[in-house]
Amino acid sequence: MSHVNAVTFTIVVVLFLVVTLTGFAAARWRRAEDMLHLNEWGLGGRGFGTFVAWFLLGGDLYTAYTFIAVPAAVFGAGAVTGFFAVAYTIIVFPIALIFLPRLWSIARVHNYVTPADFIRGRYGSRALALAIAFTGILALMPYIALQLVGIQAVLTVMGVGTASANTFVKDLPLFIAFLVLAVFTYVSGLRAPALIAFVKDTLVYLMIIVAILYLPAKVGGWGHIFAAGQAHLKAISPVTHKPAGVFIPVSGNSQLAFSTLALGSALALMVYPHAVTGVLSTKRRDIIKRNMALLPIYSIMLAFIALLGYVAVADKTTAANVKKAGNAQLAVPYLFQHLFPSWFTGVAFSAIVIGALVPAAIMAIAAANLFTRNIFKEFFKPDASPRLETRVSQWVSLVVKAGALLFAIELPKTFSINLQLLGGIWIVQTFPSLVFGLFTRWFHRWALLAGWLAGMIFGTIAAYKVSTPTTSHWAGSVDTLFGHTYYIGLSALILNVAVSAVLTIVLRAAGVPAGADETLPQQYTADPVDTPAPAPAGIGMASQVRGGRADGGTA
Amino acid sequence: MTQPSDTPKTSGGSRSPVAANPVISAIIAILVLASIFFALWVPLYASATPKVGAFPFFYFYLLIYMPVLGVVMWIVITLQKRLRAGPSAGGAAAASDGEVAR
User: Fold this and answer.
1) What is the distance in angstroms between the Cα of A435 and the nearest Cα belonging to chain B?
2) Do B77 and A293 touch (CB under 8 A)?
3) Lowest mean pLDDT across A289-303, A384-398, A478-492, A537-551
């Protein structure tokens, strides 16, 4: 701990304490009669309005991935694997507007807590619901891990804990941050990240506005920044004998990679269980729609944050520091540390750390809900009381975080963005069951399951085989097939849909039972405005909300 | 309804809002699809020129896309509200749609 800046360190610690207290105080915010209810702990009482939802969804979708990994990728590789994130956060909103309101309505009518609850009710298939829940938990792990990698990057630059060669001592601050996160999530549930999101966003907006107004002039203006970025990406790497990256994707292959990455990631984002958790916590159907128009304000910020990657290239000291450390993740923290006064570096670092904690908490809650509702209750204890469900969720949220910590420490972190893309490859395989299912029952449940399996296997193997001269496996999520370069998640999804469609025709012709559907067409557009969220019924026991004549039969 | 490209059958009832207002529905569908398409069709904007200020066109285009998207999404949501209000509120709402719809 030799080079720790006292001012920076103090500010980070103080703001971290503020957030910790907020996290615990959140348990009292909009206090429910009975916190031991999954609608309360896991969905914040299903009562968030436009304002809170904006912060919560923003905190959900714009994470440490935004602040660390995107600029790192832009720094290292430029437009295709870095700046695609901007196109991705553009198209995610129109795509989400197509299906999220329907998901909200059907979940409210039937009191579904997780995406897999819906699958269970729609297809009457425990196996398919299990597959969806399993994928959700699996995909959330690396995503939570990515948040921890973000915290780690900040801690490394601050000089905290890096002096020791011992893994445990080295990562001790990470363990502490992590423990605090785990405990307040356990106590306050979804209310904690919702309340902390206010603090987080205030800091993040402050950080980014100051960074955009202050930093470019410091390093010689945008003209110089783009020129430096272009020159850096053109330089031939001594290891790969190829240019470091792409400044503007002009070749057909780089354009295809750019758009398939953007499309695949956008399809994935809104089927992530934590995004669904955020959506289901809102009070009314309109609130989700309104947020699809309001959230792009965040994306403007993302675009500028991405460009900080080039600012880091243009700043010679930062570029040299990153090179010395051999870790592009450190680009933004080093940049801030070098150019900001130390007190503001403290504010900016806190913004990143807290920006990692909020989504990590929501993700852990989402994963815990999946386990409780769709694995524990479904297969082990069908008569679990709401109280027991909540208790199990609380404990599982701790286990999930521990798993993510393992992910963060064990996997190569040169490009933590790939962790998220790996999770994206998996989660996008749930898209056909979930999103197609919101519109049609044409697909057969077993066909969807087979398609899912095909997509998962293909996607995982393809991602495993991606290598670079410096990394033998898991080196990226873009692959070349038939001479075209594209995102593995999307090719796996195409395979998934093809298998599902073909098998649906076969199974239908063979007369294999399609399973009971407990949902009704008009329930997908229901908007029970003033109806309070009903108590969670057992899965398959539909509650009655405006226009919802439920035929509660499930196979 | 929420899904512009969906077939009316899933929305239930004999007079679905989509079927009752084909023009508004089409506008919604076009706006949603266009906002996806113009971000994904990279050849459209993958060039360094014309530079806007110091920004190469590629970067400027994606930056300016965001506020535009916010406005387009807001228009879509407003139109969807009309669509929903249309059949249940009867002629009044439909008449006020006049300029847009017909």
Assistant:
1) 11
2) yes
3) A537-551
